[in-house]
Predict the structure.
Amino acid sequence: MTDSIAEQPFSAATMRRTSITDIAFRYGLLIVLLVLIAVSQALYPRFLDPQNIKNILSQNAPLGIVAVGMTLVMITRGFDLSVGATYAAGATVFASLAVAGWPLWAAGAATLVVGLLAGLINGTIITRVNVNPFVATLGTTSAFSGLALLYSNSSPFVVSDKAFSFIGRGSVLGLPVSIWILGAVLVVGEFVLRKTVYGRSLYAIGGNDEAARLAGLPTALLRTSTYVICGVCASLGGMIIASRLSIGQADIGSSMALDSIAVVVIGGTSLMGGEGSVWRSAIGLLIVAVLTNLLDSLAVDSNYQLVIKGTIVVAAVALDAFARSRR
């Protein structure tokens, strides 16, 4: 009886500590973001200027769109290193078709189909041929890049049509179009994951693929669909960057794969699958975007920036491992 009473305060304290820890892991990203914004404003007084905020969001819109697709892939315990090549291919195809005189809506639709096919190839190799996602997408990265270079004859497509720059540099209601597109993709992605049977099925596959299969889920089809969505997101991001620069070339986006993975990992999506969300990836995007803007504003050497970003990614992965070990 005495032992039972003595243990009660300890149990209550343990529960409180556990609750605080859970809250810290769940909302710690928001705290990090707010602290980073405060530091940025202190070091760079024009940071919160509305135009600077628009620039930050617009410049990082393609990365954020790709990160949404990557989030879905990683929730199912997948990986896609080919998004950079698909991103470059999307920019190249979109610009080339515009130069050829295609209506922009038709050029955009064709570009999205290119991304869809790239994702379908990745998903088929991974789920039907049973090739490891890392190896499969590493191979398709080379293949897609080579095809884009062959298609463009290793030359850029320069677009002179002013209408071509609308989605990259145009504005609607005072906000850049690219921000509207990013917002729409984020909202749809979060809704799909949280409110649909499809989204819940992706979590189930990431948590335990075999159990999901035995429960009757078409795991191969669902996993393939995430690569298709990721490919479409990458080609859409390529369209935006081509529109912004009025040029499409096959050698852009070399860091897109690592950057998008960094955003998703920093956002808390587990490399082991079954955990993650689009809203957390959005916070990860903002952290990376704010940090990059601050370092650029302070004229920090790009090499040091790589070191800082790499350290943050490693810390995020270590935090994920620590959180899992506690659970």
